[in-house]
Automatic annotation (TrEMBL):
Superkingdom as given in the UniProt entry: Bacteria
Catalytic activity: Release of an N-terminal amino acid, Xaa-|-Yaa- from a peptide, amide or arylamide. Xaa is preferably Ala, but may be most amino acids including Pro (slow action). When a terminal hydrophobic residue is followed by a prolyl residue, the two may be released as an intact Xaa-Pro dipeptide
Name by which UniProt lists this protein: Aminopeptidase N
Organism in which the protein naturally occurs: Hirschia litorea
Cofactor: Zn(2+)
Domain Peptidase M1 alanyl aminopeptidase C-terminal: from-to ranges: 553-876
Pfam families noted in UniProt: DUF3458, DUF3458_C, Peptidase_M1, Peptidase_M1_N
EC number: 3.4.11.2
């Protein structure tokens, strides 16, 4: 255990900055090895007579400081590990600082770095301090003017935030460009890009009639893969006007795609920078999941312009203020663009896979935590995904009218400011008669509430008494939990599956909002005409785990009868979850009756859904191993995997003909990225996956499909399926043949090759370990490229539970080896990979011994602060 852990940053320690900046002027002399940065800040002291001015700085070479036009003598400032402290006079100041940095040596991808021979920046959360000395905190806002100078031939495009200004040549081989951003912004939204690109342009006329040029800058040769991102951008701009009344506010909007990026994308004002994986797509190289991700991430970053940029965060504890709200907005956008039910189901799958597991382990933290060790590690599923669920719940609790009134009040009141969750919630409190005081506890309490329900019918009084309780397990630092307000959309069905119109709180309806506020509460429905079956948390109205007390027969009835597709899907998932957990501990064949009943229920729902293939494919989906182990102890993932395989086989056998027919349905005509065409391909992919559970019976058919398929979705589904057919004979060759063909075709396209890596990292074949070793030894396995590292390491650790949790510990060792190699280059990435260990204590004791051994190895390795933070918490 390391002892030099720095103290955490705490919310209670927040203090406003004693200085205000009126203007920032930046000049860049761009060279890969030595870039000069001149930073001129004008401003004034706002309070505190003697306060030092703290400027953050990291990895900077200080060249000079001048205050009010004079070189600052050395006794008027001090340089520390964190930056500079300057003794400032009262009143106004003009501070000029010149520094030197080396973008080419920056492998952390934070600050100014090179990617594919181009300059680019990433400043959130604390990257700006790696560019110049500055109050690098989100509550210091200023308008920025930027001037860049660079070699003209190598870097013909010079971009920054805001509106373009003057540009021109300097001598024969250099040029410059100026940009000016009138909207005051914090440093984390600063961006700069310089390089050569293909430029895909279009324009959008905003609601007030302003024509705004749009451009997407991509690697040379990628021009033809920009259309979908551009289309998504235009739809996002128009949707934000229609639904939230928000108009774009600069003369231009630019997106740049870069190859090396730690996250999905970044919302820098007027200049969004994207991981190329979330920009580039065409019918040949991208899967439907890629198209969907592009649409939602383009929207997400664009929506940040209002929720994040115009109104930003006072400090990083408020991160969910922009992220939770913006995820909520992008989810609503996707729901409007595609199928609302299918979108909701996918959001819930993701929440369960990523956030519930985080909330149930040693890394659990609240949506707005009150302390953190490393800010980079706060970009979590809890802040993002649970943060979005809180917004959705708030809307459910106060209703649409108050929700939009509150949101408009928030935009009006805090525009141009750095706000807090209290500011946000207060805007809603002023717009509703509902008391939302207790709702705020959702932001401070971590852990996923478990809600239990049971009901009693009184046939004489015609009442149904529903008793609902909540309980949240302790999480790190929070032993005692409060009762939270939990909105449960609730309907009652007759045992024939008819939705009953009933009365609750004086209101007659066939669906009610039951709000559980205490640890236990009783709700009495009246006018209940027959003994009902309750359906709770419809639409996943609250991010909870539900123990609804129903039996399998009741659930099957609901699944067959419910007209709400989410509730129907959820009913079947709950059935499947119970069955799989029992199957994993009963291998004696005693469960055949339950399996048959389940398969019948699936078949019925599947047949009914056949006109909506996207939904039908979700009906056929079984809960993942990761989801199944969440509430288990001492678990053996291979047993859950085996249980899934048993159930998949039963389903596949039962509807085999229909699955085969689905596969044979060939696509004709040009590629169509629409949700409905994607739905048909999703069903095909699911059919391929299910048939592969019958092992070599359909291997040849799947291989043929691989060779004849025209879309990446199908090609990948076929490769995945072949990779999951165990055995070294003909089937093994089919997989390897497919890989060879694929590699030959796509070896020059990095994004497509990432898929080739992932397919192998996710395969469950016995040769996996050697295969991974071979992959990591390839020259194109570039540890500096996060997409490539994730394609192997994250795909393996997060999506291949059987191999990652191999009983002899090789999976843990393999991941640890990669973390150790990556950490010196890119701490944000190594820390992210290390979170794969988060639930190590849930596994069987032999696995725990191996996992702990690797965690200790990491703990002893003197890793980056980011990785160390994760390891320390995982081991605590
Ligand atoms: N703010 C970005 C987003 O959510 C995510 C991000 C965080 C990107 C930190 C890079 C670094 O859209
Ligand atoms: Zn975001």
């Amino acid at each position: 255990m390391r002892t030099d852990t720095p103290p955490p940053v705490r919310l209670v320690d927040y203090r406003p900055y004693p200085f205000a900046l009126d203007h920032v002027n930046l000049e860049f002399f761009l060279e890969p090895s030595k870039t000069r940065v001149r930073n001129k800040m004008t401003g004034r002291r706002v309070f505190g007579e003697h306060a030092l001015m703290n400027l953050h700085g990291e990895n900077l070479k200080l060249i000079s400081i001048a205050l009010n036009g004079h070189i600052l003598p050395e006794n008027q400032y001090e340089q520390t590990d964190e930056g500079l402290n300057i003794h400032m006079p009262a009143g106004e100041f003009c501070l000029e600082i010149e520094t030197e940095i080396s973008p080419e040596e920056n492998t952390q991808l934070s600050g100014l770095y090179m990617s594919g021979g181009r300059f680019c920046t990433q400043c959130e959360a604390e990257g700006f301090r790696r560019i110049t000395f500055y109050p690098d905190r989100p509550d210091v806002l200023a308008p920025f003017d930027v001037r860049m100078e660079a070699n003209k031939e190598k870097y013909p495009y010079l971009l920054s935030n805001g509106n373009p200004g003057k540009s021109g040549d300097i001598g024969t081989d250099r040029h410059y460009a100026e940009w000016s951003d009138p909207h005051p912004k914090p440093s984390y939204l600063f961006a700069l890009v310089a390089g050569d690109f293909d430029v895909y342009t279009d324009s959008f006329t905003t609601m007030s009639g302003k024509e705004t040029p749009l451009a997407i800058y991509v690697d040379k040769g990628d021009y033809d893969r920009c259309a979908y991102a551009m289309d998504s951008l235009k739809r996002s701009m128009s949707w934000d006007e229609d639904v939230f009344g928000r108009e774009y506010d600069l003369d231009v909007f630019n997106i740049v795609a870069v190859r090396d990026f730690n996250f999905g994308a970044m919302e820098n004002k007027g200049l969004n920078i994207f991981n190329a994986a979330y920009v580039l797509a065409d019918g040949k190289t991208a899967t439907d999941a890629d198209f969907e991700a592009i649409e939602s991430i383009v929207a997400h970053e664009y929506f940040h312009n209002w929720t994040g940029n115009r109104i930003t965060c006072r400090d990083w504890f408020q991160l969910c203020l922009k992220e939770g709200l913006t995820v909520y907005r992008d989810q609503e956008f996707s729901a409007d663009m595609r199928s609302r039910a299918v979108t909701r189901i996918k959001d819930v799958i993701r929440l369960r896979a990523r956030q519930f597991s985080e909330d149930g382990g040693p890394l659990a933290h609240s949506v707005r935590p009150d302390e953190y060790a490393r800010i980079d590690n706060l970009y979590t599923a809890t802040v993002y995904e649970k943060g979005a669920e809180l917004i959705r719940m708030l809307r459910t609790l106060i209703g649409d009218t108050a929700f939009f009134a509150g949101l408009n009040r928030y935009f009006d009141t805090y525009d141009g400011q750095a706000a807090t969750i209290e500011d946000f919630l207060n805007s809603f409190q002023l717009s509703t008669s509902e008391n939302i005081k207790e709702f705020a506890n959702w932001y401070s309490q971590s852990g996923t509430p478990v809600v239990t329900a049971s009901g009693v019918y009184d046939s004489i009084a015609r009442t149904y008494t529903l008793t609902v309780g909540q309980r949240t397990e302790p999480t790190p630092g929070q032993p005692d939990k409060l009762a939270l307000p939990i909105p449960l959309r609730t309907a009652l069905f007759s045992n024939k599956g008819r939705r009953l119109s009933t009365k609750l709180n004086g209101e007659i309806n066939d669906e009610h909002l039951v709000v559980l506020r205490d640890f236990e509460q009783v709700f009495v429905f009246t006018d209940v005409s027959s003994a009902p079956i309750h359906s709770l948390n419809r639409g996943f109205s609250a991010p909870i785990k539900l123990k609804d007390g129903l039996n399998d027969a009741n659930r099957s009835t609901l699944a067959a009868a419910d007209n709400d597709p989410f509730a129907q899907w959820e009913g079947l998932q709950t059935l499947a979850r119970g069955l799989l957990i029992d199957l994993a501990s009963n291998e004696d064949g005693s469960m055949n009756d339950r399996i048959h009943a389940f398969v019948d229920a699936i078949d019925e729902a599947f047949t009914a859904a056949i006109d909506d293939p996207a939904f039908a494919s979700l009906i056929l989906r079984l809960p993942s191993v990761g989801e199944l182990i969440q509430d288990q102890n001492a678990s053996d993932p291979s047993k859950f995997h085996a249980a899934r395989l048993t159930l998949k086989r039963a389903i596949a056998r039962h509807i085999e003909n229909s699955l085969v027919a689905t596969i044979q349905n060939q696509e004709t005509g040009p590629f169509d990225p629409s949700a409905s065409a994607a739905g048909r391909r999703a069903l095909k992919a699911t059919a391929i996956d299910l048939l592969s559970s019958l092992q070599n019976e359909h291997a040849q058919r799947i291989s043929d499909n691989f060779h004849s398929a025209t879309t990446m979705t199908e090609i990948l589904a076929s490769m995945n399926a072949l990779g999951n057919i165990e055995g070294g004979g003909a089937e093994g060759e089919l997989f390897d043949n497919a890989l060879t063909v694929f590699e030959e075709k796509w070896k020059d396209s990095a994004l497509v090759m990432d898929k080739w890596y992932s397919v192998q990292a996710m395969s469950v074949r016995s040769d996996l370990r050697a295969r991974l070793q071979r992959l990591c030894a390839r020259t194109d396995f570039d540890l500096k490229n996060p997409n490539r590292v994730r394609a192997v390491a994250a795909a393996f650790a997060m999506n291949n539970p059987v191999a990652f949790h191999a009983p002899d510990g090789w999976g843990y060792e393999f991941l640890t080896d990669i973390i150790l190699k990556v950490d010196g280059l890119n701490p944000a990435l190594s820390a992210r990979l290390a979170t794969a260990f988060e639930n190590w204590r849930r596994f069987s004791s032999d696995r725990q011994i191996h996992a702990e051994k690797q965690l200790r190895r990491l703990d002893d390795a003197n890793l980056s602060k980011n990785a160390q933070d994760i390891i320390t918490r995982a081991l605590a």
